Amino acid sequence: MPLPPATFSFLVLSLRAQAEIQLGLMHFGPEPKPEPDLPIARHTIDMMGVLLEKTKGNLSLEEQRLLENSLTELRFRFVQVSDEAAKPAAQNS
Length: 93
What we know:
This protein is mainly alpha-helical. It has one domain. The protein has helices at 8-22, 38-54, 61-91. The longest helix is centred in the C-terminal third of the chain and has 31 residues, at 61-91. The termini are far apart. The mean pLDDT is 92.
């Protein structure tokens, strides 16, 4: 299978997929769903925020929307996963 072209969109989608895996939203293979790694996911999401800030004014409208929409979705999912992870801890207290 050939590698996809190295584009800004592919970079954003790669980072998004990494964050989704780190949040436990996506996994591959027969293994059980892994536990979320919230600190690493937060770091990946923050890196995407840096990318958005540093590329302001240099992206096409499509690229900017892709990055902004990905960040919005990932931040929302991070909060959801964080809340879910806190529930079992609160129930055991």
